[in-house]
Amino acid sequence: MSRKRFQIIEVGDEIVATSSGANKSVKSTKTTKSTKSSKSTKSTESKETKETKKTPKKQEGQAKSTKSAESVKSTSTKKTTTTKSRSKSKSDSSGLSSSGHSTRITNASKVIIVESPAKAKTIESILGSDYQVISSKGHVRDLPQKKFGVDLNTLEMTFEIIPGKEPVVEDIKRVTEGKEVLLASDPDREGEAIAWHLSNILNVTGKNRITFSEITPHAIQEAVKSPREIDMNRVNAQLARRALDRIVGYKISPLLWRIIKDARSAGRVQSAALKIICEREQKRFEFVPQKYYKVWIEIAGLKANLTKIDGKKIKPTDVTKEIADEILNGVRSVKLIDIDIKEVKKNPPLPFTTSTLQQDASTRLNFAVYKTMKIAQELYEGIDTAEGHIAFITYMRTDSTRISEEAKDATKDFILSKFGQEYLGEEVRKANKESKAKVQDAHECIRPVNVSMTPEKAKNLLDKDHLRLYEIIWKRFVASQMSSAVYKQYSYDFENSKYIFEASVRERIFDGFEAVYSIDDEMSEEHKDLKVGEEYNVSPKSQEAETTPPDRYSEASLVKTLENEGIGRPSTYATIIQTLLARKYIVRSRRTLIPTILGFVVNDYLEKRFPDIVDKNFTAEMEKQLDEVESGKKDWKVIIKEFLSKFTKDLEHAQKEFFSIDFETNMHCETCDGNYRLKVGKYGLYLNCPNCKVNKSIKSSMFGVLNGGKLYFLQNEEEKNAEQEEAEIDESSGAKKGGFKKNYYRRKTKKS
């Protein structure tokens, strides 16, 4: 009998455990996003050597900064297997060009290395013949795919060339040989880590790092004038994140796979997000609707709602049928006892950050988060248009609302010429008040590169979706620099005996930023004829209503929650959601995210065996500690050691103690009076009737709620099959056909 071999394949910050026999691979590998490998091929591996011992002596400044990363190992490995190297928005295929040819060698004395081929094309056209700009196409080096790569005793990390990226690396070495090298990867932690990896591969030292948040002649030319050393604090923050994600994914995912065939992975941030979604579904399930009555009167185009009884402020749910009937039968007139008129300002919005762009694009454009980031990436790197290759927006991964002085000045001139002095706003307000996370203010907000490139001008240069996203970015940014809108607000209080009815209406007297960003509907002016002390005849109205459960998360609201809780970073929100969808832990329907049975079972296992991993406060605290590493306040090794002290105990417990999936369900057996139980077997989750021993197969992507140790299924007649629902989703837009009803296959009055 051949022994099974386990292979660990990493996808982003997630780990997938797969098994293979001697002659064939197990079907379970088909759901991974990593490239499938056929039979193993022999690979040659260079000797593993410590990074700091192989690289030439650094200049004094860089030597100091590299000290904290001296434990990191590097391995260059040649393999035949190809793989995806970064997220789709950050990388391309592993070849050097669409034609597969090597990069040309020019007479340029300096070589700039960027991540994206599109970006390389734009920058080279700006700098001229003295510079050659080439692309690494995302990451070129990472932790090994088939080995752990992290020594838990010394915290030394072993890196290797990403399989399939060897031609890229060899080509970069060939082009840069004997020339000055500038590393221009993206201006975030991940980009800084890419620059560090390249510097070690190429043995380049000193001030060789340049960054820019917009691809314009001015920004590029200023960047090349002032290269700096690689920021090792930022690199160390990324190394810590990478190590933490590897530890969590590599250690937990195989345990999940052994227990639940369909469970593909666990992740440090992914699992916390899954718990948030599951908890919301549980709250919806536990919610008991409460009936109440809405009561109002209509006067002069106003709708005045019942707000007080006997001088006491009431909640909507305080209004019973008896109260409603008493008002309907007894109130025939009301007296206007008070009018309050005041001016109120509506402040302009702040410019977009990554999360607010994702939220607005989801709400306004119905874009999936992943689609938003893909289009934004292309707008940033530049698009071939009838007027040439044009970059439209600044860097799209940011949690800052900062604006450069040059951009402020240009926008000021635009507003003055287009609208006039009165539309010019005050200095942009401080942002990020809602977020618990520290702002990584490495670069600006998301804004148009050239404010004079209006959506009207861009209409002939961009396709529909690119134009729609660019339009909301342009309008939001210009609006942020404009004056507040001004409204006159009218508040009315009407009285009848013990009942008070209140109405409020406002009219805009100055549009300000709303001249470009939004316009309120015109209101009726009949109310201006109302006078204090006058009696007015009324015919009260009422409507029976019912309290509603909390809404399911949409992509937009989940991103907002993750941001507010300090979970993840702007660059990870799209990946988190896509990973959960890909694993079938959740399904997208009617723009909402619904956890599947598989998602609930995985979350239940992680809650019981690894409570810290799914705890949002723990995950947020870890993000804060990574921020402290980036600012130089904390050693990255200390963070990992502190994490390992608790995680190792949980891991040992999980490895030793058997975990049983055996949940009572509310689904009746078709052959007897009993209820099925949810169990797991060789082929995944299934239903078993303990009375008649009948087994029934189910799809783990079905819907239900695990609550109080019992699984409550959604009604099969009312809920579409998950795979069918996913097939109906237009992944490119996030739109879908059809939808789900909200009813559960459960008790009519009480939980059974």
Q: In terms of structural class, how would the helical and strand content be classed?
A: alpha+beta
Tally of DSSP β-strands: 31
Give the name of the CATH superfamily of the largest domain. Topoisomerase I, domain 2
Helical content, roughly? 25-40%
Morphology: flat
Nutshell version of this structure?
The protein is of the alpha+beta class and 752 residues long. It has 21 helices and 31 strands.
Describe this structure in words.
- With 752 residues, this protein is of the alpha+beta class.
- The chain folds into 4 domains: 41-230, Rossmann fold, CATH 3.40.50; 256-285 and 551-736, Topoisomerase I, domain 2; 292-340 and 487-503 and 524-546, Distorted Sandwich (Topoisomerase I, domain 3); 354-480, Topoisomerase I, domain 4.
- Helices cover 34% and strands 21% of the residues.
- It has 21 helices and 31 strands.
- The strands form 9 sheets. Strands 12, 13, 14, 15, 18, 19, 20 and 21 form an 8-stranded antiparallel β-sheet that branches.
- Strand 18 (485-496) and strand 19 (499-510) form a beta hairpin.
- Helix 7 (232-259) runs parallel beside helix 20 (636-656), helix 8 packs across helix 16 (573-582) and helix 10 runs antiparallel to helix 15 (555-565).
- The longest helix has 28 residues, at 232-259.
- It is flat, with a radius of gyration of 30 Å.
- The two termini are 47 Å apart.
